[in-house]
């Protein structure tokens, strides 16, 4: 896997993991402010979620890279 393909796979994995991590710990506030959606989370903790997303995506990407490099899945000879 070259650098471009590896980067593209990482970006795709990162966004998939982000959408799985976003709901973690998201609770609406007891008293929503005027003009805010009642379902909007009170404290989304986006910085922590972005760090967790990056860590999980790195592990998943390493697993994908290992599977492709080991030859368990060969995309070149698929017919």
Order of helices and strands: HH
Q: Taking all residues together, what is the mean pLDDT?
A: 90
Strand content: under 5%
Instruction: Give me the count of strands.
Output: 0
Rg, alpha carbons? 18 Å
Low-confidence stretches: none
Helix content, binned percent: 55-70%
| Number of separate helices | 2
Largest sheet properties: none
Helix/strand/pairing category: mainly alpha
Shape: elongated
Whole-number count of domains: 1
Kindly, what is the distance between the CA atoms of the first and last residues, rounded to a whole number of angstroms? 20 Å
What do you see in this structure?
By secondary structure, the chain is mainly alpha-helical. It has one domain. It is built from two helices and no strands. It has helices at residues 3-21, 46-70. Helix 1 packs across helix 2. It starts with a helix and ends in a 9-residue tail after the last helix. The mean pLDDT is 90.
């Amino acid at each position: 896997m070259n650098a471009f393909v590896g980067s593209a796979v990482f970006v795709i994995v990162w966004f998939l993991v982000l959408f799985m991590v976003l709901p973690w710990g998201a609770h609406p506030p007891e008293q929503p402010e005027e003009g805010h959606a009642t379902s909007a989370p009170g404290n989304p903790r986006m910085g922590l979620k972005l760090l967790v997303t990056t860590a999980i995506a790195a592990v998943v990407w390493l697993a994908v890279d290992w599977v492709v490099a080991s030859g368990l899945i060969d995309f070149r000879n698929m017919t």
